[in-house]
Specification:
By secondary structure, the chain is an all-alpha fold. It has twelve helices and no strands. The chain has two domains: about 100 residues, Endonuclease Iii, domain 2; about 110 residues, Endonuclease III, domain 1.
């Protein structure tokens, strides 16, 4: 599997480029809250919700002591405000209770599996959210698996799994060093722009020749809709 991941990664980079990323570790609490806010919404709206919290509260301690309704008001733009506000407030207060302050810095010394085990104990945190903290905050070579990564990895033929968590397990057992960030980010772009759930644009897919998906949509470019042509301008 490693050689195939390496090949796919190189093809996706040639199509989409090398994704930008922070070169140093960032605060894991920031990353955890930002990832929770990103669930079931757009990047634009989750960023607005995150900025609202960072702008309207002095620090995470103040968010922890705020009424849940106040947190909801600040993150409403990202959707599922009640659910996310409850999770955020619970996590922050649990950290205060356990550590005496809002911090996840202790995770930096732990191996990947232990970081995931620690984080998924919190309400609203699953394997995907925990692995995002590993990749985007702690700079680990870990590939989070959302619906796009799960779908594209299975369609391409990298794996045959029925759940994102199983996909995560198998991918990360075989992930070549230094590939996680570009592989994860570009697979998401592929899933959003080309390898769509209902109508994949297979004729413009850079992985067409190695993809094993039996339900390929080989509609000629001349038959694509106006919206499909708009996507062509962005890939």
């Amino acid at each position: 599997m490693k050689p195939l991941i390496t090949k796919i990664n190189k093809i996706l980079i040639s199509r989409f480029g090398v994704p930008k990323r922070n070169k140093a570790e960032t605060d894991p609490v920031d990353a955890l809250i930002a990832t929770i806010l990103s669930q079931n919404t757009t990047d634009k709206n989750s960023y607005k919700a995150y900025k609202n919290l960072k702008t309207n509260f002095k620090n995470w301690n103040e968010v922890a002591s705020a009424k849940q309704k106040m947190i909801e008001q600040n993150i409403r733009v990202g959707g599922l405000a009640k659910q996310k506000a409850k999770s955020i407030k619970t996590i922050l207060n649990e950290l205060l209770k356990q550590k005496g302050k809002v911090t996840l810095d202790y995770l930096k010394k732990l191996p990947n599996d232990d970081v995931i085990s620690e984080l998924i104990q919190f309400n609203g945190v699953g394997v995907k959210t925990a692995s995002c903290v590993l990749l985007f905050s702690l700079q680990r070579n870990v590939c989070p698996v959302d619906t796009h990564v799960h779908r594209t990895a299975n369609r391409i033929g990298l794996i045959k799994t029925k759940s994102p968590d199983k996909t995560f397990e198998l991918l990360n057992k075989n992930l070549p060093a230094g590939t996680a960030h570009s592989f994860h980010t570009n697979l998401i772009k592929l899933g959003r722009d080309i390898c769509k759930s209902a109508k994949p644009l297979c004729t413009i897919c850079p992985l067409l020749e190695i993809c094993t998906y039996e339900g390929k949509n080989m509609l000629p470019i001349s038959k694509l809709t106006k919206n499909d042509f708009l996507l062509l301008d962005n890939v």
